Amino acid sequence: MASLVIGDNEYQVPSDISLDKWVELNKWTSNPIKFVSIGMDMPLEEAAIIPEETLALATALLVAIMNPDWHPVKQKLWSHPLIDFNELKLGQFIDLENYIADYTKQMPNMVKVLYDIEDVEEVKLGDVYSAIKSYMNWRTLLYKQYSRLFNIDDEATEVSDKPKVNNTAHVWFDIVMVLAQNDFCKMDYVLDQPVNLCLNWLAWNKDKQRAEAERLKKERIKNRR
């Protein structure tokens, strides 16, 4: 394992990091001294005297640790199995969408949903990174499957993890209310339904509205003649 010796102190480059440390490091990617200080549990004043080339190397090593190589997806965290993405409830999917909108801060909360686990303090990034990336790939495919519903360009190759609007939660609230037929008392029932079922209904309803709009358009043109 790589290490840095500064004076009488030796600091190890970690082989893995906690989810909280991953979040903290993401705050300081533009400040190499603070970044290395946090990543290597090193006092800031000692990080400040690291030679520039060495600092750059330590930064690169930490960036690599923050983006580990893919491993087989871990199907369990202790007694907590990874959720089957195809069995996600709408409420779970919406929670994940809101977390993805603020991914660098909310990634630990994604893990809580994906593994149905409350305490992620002991979870290491390497334990869950492949599962998170697998979910992101599944999500991209899901959006492509419903591209007409979400008005996604057919030529798009990737669904962004950044929201196209300022309030992702508000958009999904509107969608839930459509599914609940504007009945607030039905929201819990809707949120507990499979996400694929909900998207299928929304896609069917949108196609129905499009067909009706096209029919009315043709009727107006006919009446003008």
Beta strand count: 4
Number of helices: 11
Whole-number count of domains: 2
The average pLDDT value, as a whole number, equals 91
Reading side by side through the largest sheet, how are the strands ordered?
Answer: 1-2
**C-alpha-based Rg, rounded:** 23 Å
Structure report:
The chain is mainly alpha-helical. The protein folds into two domains: 3-66, no CATH class; 71-225, no CATH class. It is built from eleven helices and four strands; from the N terminus they run E-E-H-H-H-H-E-E-H-H-H-H-H-H-H. It has helices at 19-26, 32-39, 44-47, 52-66, 90-100, 103-114, 125-145, 147-150, 168-179, 187-191, 195-224, and strands spanning 3-6, 9-12, 76-77, 80-81. The chain has a two-stranded antiparallel ribbon with strand order 1-2. A two-stranded antiparallel sheet has the order 3-4. Helix 2 crosses helix 4 (52-66) and helix 5 packs antiparallel against helix 6. The radius of gyration is 23 Å and the shape is elongated.
